[in-house]
UniProtKB/TrEMBL annotation:
Gene: fabZ
Location(s), subcellular: Cytoplasm
One Gene Ontology term of the molecular function aspect: (3R)-hydroxyacyl-[acyl-carrier-protein] dehydratase activity
Reactions catalysed according to its record: a (3R)-hydroxyacyl-[ACP] = a (2E)-enoyl-[ACP] + H2O
Keyword Isomerase tagged: no
The protein's name: 3-hydroxyacyl-[acyl-carrier-protein] dehydratase FabZ
């Protein structure tokens, strides 16, 4: 039996993703958004291929996606959710910064041919700091999980500490 997304599911293709994220190859790590609900959650995927630049050195004999890039992929997914929630698109005068990562755990390697499915939910947004719970799975198995904190700043204010 095949399950499908409800007709009301909101999705994003790569062209729309690129209109929200400034990242480009090789740092754009979200290929498609399967569903999102503003103010609540988002599900996105990263298709991992053997052609990824990082596999040249991590590791040539056993290709493994670096954990920091799995975290980055989930953070990019979280940024998409924040922008959709706020109803804005970033411009050249805004930047999204990490301000914290808590409880990061890596449970299974991710390699070529895997599809990293990222589920991110907003835990809170207070004083410009967004906090999310993020889980990345491959074939239904948890590969990575963490709580992420980010802030959106103007480029003019980007050199100031997050709490200022």
């Amino acid at each position: 039996m095949t399950t499908t997304q409800p007709d009301t599911a909101k999705t994003m293709d790569i062209c729309e993703i690129k209109s929200y994220l400034p990242h480009r190859y090789p740092m754009l790590l979200v290929d498609r958004v399967l569903a999102y609900e503003e103010g609540k959650s988002i599900t996105a995927i990263k298709n991992v291929t053997v052609n990824e630049e990082f596999f040249n050195g991590h590791f040539p004999h056993k290709p493994v996606m670096p954990g920091v890039l799995m975290i980055e992929a989930m953070a990019q997914t979280a940024a998409l959710l924040s922008f959709k929630t706020m109803g804005i698109k970033p411009d050249e005068s805004s930047v999204v910064y990490f301000v914290g990562i808590d409880g990061a755990r890596f449970k299974r390697p991710v390699g070529p041919g895997d599809q990293l499915k990222m589920d991110v939910e907003i835990l809170r947004n207070a004083r410009g700091i967004w906090k999310y719970k993020a889980v990345g799975t491959v074939d239904g198995q948890v590969a990575v999980e963490a709580e992420l904190m980010c802030t959106i700043r103007s480029v003019a204010d980007a050199s100031q500490p997050a709490g200022q």
